[in-house]
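TOPIC: backbone geometry
CONTENTS: sequence, structure tokens:
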Amino acid sequence: MSKLLTPKTILAIKDLPLAAKAIVDGFLTGMHASRMKGVGLEFSQYRSYQPSDDLRWLDWKMYARSDRYYVRQSEIETSIDIQLIVDGSNSMQHTEDGVSKMDYARYLAAALGYLSHLQGDATGLAVMQSAGMISLTARREAQHMARFYYQLEQLQPGGRFGEAHQPHLMFSGPHTRKLIIFISDFYEQQEEMFKLLESMAAMGHEVLTFHLAGNHEMQAQFGGYQAVEDLETGEILQLDGKVDTDTYAAAWRNFTTRISNRLMEKQIHYKLLSLQEPLDTALRDVLLQRAKMRR
């Protein structure tokens, strides 16, 4: 991974669309352009012209050679809707090495939205908070992406993860099957996250989850602290002496294993991302899942 894509470097770019472009461009430099098909990129194949086809996609060079009409079959013909869901709860304020979970989620969602738009897919956004759900229906227009970035820029964590009483309302649009990308630290009170994710999988959507956590959080590096606070409940836990790192490590493994196993049972993709990890790490997973859906 490029050092230019480390969270601290990227978060120094205050213009969110520009940061998203930098992340995606840095990621794509390491890939062969021929693998990236879509609007403005390489088409996948030719097929015979049909009366309902857009004339702009006719290939006149092929016509000159064969005296038959052919259409460049772009990947846009198999584009999908991508719905990003961001955990907006108070625990996303957790910060390590100058990077908060919310900022990491904000920039990651922006990069995924930029990549989605680049591929010709419709992009939607939902932010889950107990105060209410912010939702943008998936669209492809450039004006829509401006609203998408604006909502991410304005996002402030607060309260708990809200319950989606009617999750299907998030998924209105021209396509019935969607790629859902869920970004969270997976701190919940009454399995509200699992209920949402499992309901989306039951609707037939492909679901990818990215679990954000800091290295200090994962390794019990609480040196110098006398107490820690649960950011969502306000509960204070006193740290009497040294934290038993072995016990903590086992508890953390149990926590993440439980999440992973439960999601895998529902065929939901799970990926743990460190706040210290380059932001392009998740992009490959998304592209692979998108390609799988189009087969």
Summary: Residues 32-43 have pLDDT under 50 and may be disordered.
